[in-house]
Amino acid sequence: MLDGVTSAPGGIDGNGIQVGKQFAEITAISAYSFLMSCALLYILKYIPGMHLRVTEEAEMMGLDIDQFFDEQIGDWGMFEEMDRRKMAMEISSPSTPHVLERQVSSDESEKKVTTI
Amino acid sequence: MNATVRAMLAAFNTNTAASTGMIGWVTVDYLKYGRKFSVVGACSGAIAGLVGITPAAGYVGVWLAAVIGFITAVVCALVQNVNEWLHIDEGMDVFKLHGIGGMMGSFLTGIFASSSSKSLQPPHLITLLIKSSQHARRRDLSTRWH
Description:
- The complex is a heterodimer of chains A (116) and B (146).
- Chain A has 116 residues and is mostly helical.
- Chain A is built from five helices and no strands.
- Chain A has two domains: 1-52, no CATH class; 56-116, no CATH class.
- Chain B has one domain (5-120).
């Protein structure tokens, strides 16, 4: 009655029949939404080219990669930062790590050759 | 719903029920998982409280809104495994929070709905206008007929 129009007493005001009415409401709304959802989903299921579920592989792989060209949800900031740092390091000191790796590998192979 | 004290009460009720829902869910988690909380549980509790107070927002006082939010969140936290019971594959807990929470809220509305704050406010301005215009028309008609 706060808006001057509606008066809605419940069980706490001694109007116990309201609880029964609420149960009827819950049942009716649940049944309606269940039946309508079923009907709409069955219609959707039998439209050619539409499915209710994806395949097992797509579920394992993730729907972003399955249906879009990039992955949107997930914490990829760390990996992007690592890629960025790696690229910055390669640009600032060009090809020195590769030379070192080659020297090490050649040394190892020479050692192996000598030991053999 | 128009801009009355009732609308303001609905806003207060919604806020209160969300906070007590969070308290309720976190309490259940605290007792169930050995004195540990979960942030996801707290957020789910707030959602459960909001869902529970939605049917009752305009019909209860603030303290009963707190009770409704708390009870709804506790019930939703206690049926944690409802997706396994029903054998449904649903990752977002939509049925648990919105389905069961909504049923719980509707049920508690039937119990807790109160018209006790009937005299908090005189009738709304539009109601007064309609009544006065009806009165004026009736008077107008009566003068015309006689």
